[in-house]
Every structure is written in structure tokens, then in C-alpha cells.
Amino acid sequence: MPGDTDPVRLLAGMDPVLHAHRYVFVSVPELPDGLAPLATMREDEGLSAVVTADDADAHGLIGAFPCAGITLRVASALEAVGFLAVITRALADAGIGTNPVAGFHHDHLFVPWERRDDAMAVLRDLR
Description:
Blueprint: H1 7-12, E1 16-28, E2 39-43, E3 46-52, H2 53-58, E4 64-72, H3 83-93, E5 99-102, E6 107-112, H4 116-126
Antiparallel strand pairs: 1-3, 1-4, 2-3, 4-6, 5-6
């Protein structure tokens, strides 16, 4: 099911939702049994994973970048041009760093935990 590529429609319909969990990024050679990451990326140095801070603690993993997850619920096409650029620019202008991750159906943003409400306000103002 293809997503939309029009940046105007994508911004208007992004419908951001803030996840309740606090996440961290970890790097491991392989996933420990029982660890259920939200996202992973294989890199030369190991497997990067986004996991809840509680799961990282429970598995004895050192996490970096305590963050909030925000899902943009608009169905964005993987080949959409400029959508995330507009969003990350607006967040940067507000002094909020972000780590975007594209999923098959939606885009996801990871922002500093203590700036999560500010990030949501920026996203609401973009619509």
C-alpha cells in the first residue's frame, strides 16, 4: 500500500502521537533474548537498537540519548521528498535535536525526553 508523496498533504495530515515510554539507543553484537526493540539498524560496529529505558536496564545495557518517540501517523511514501526535512528543520530551529527513523508506513522521531512536549508543540504548529 503506497503512501503519499505530497509534502503539503503530509504536513497537514501528519497526526503526531507521543509514545508513553522513555527510549534509549543501544549498540549490541546481537539482541539479547527477551529484548523487543522498537527499531534496529545493522551497522559495521554492531546492532543499533531503540529500546525502552526499562528494557535496557533490565538487560544490563548502557543506553544513550534518553528520548521520547513520536510517530507521525500519516501514511508517507518512502520516496517522499522534503517531508522530514521540513520537520527536522522546524525542530532544529526550536533547538530540539531529532533522530528520524522511516518505517514502511510511517515516520518516527526520537527527541530528547525533556523536550518532548516542546517537540509536540512544534509539530502541531506545522500543520
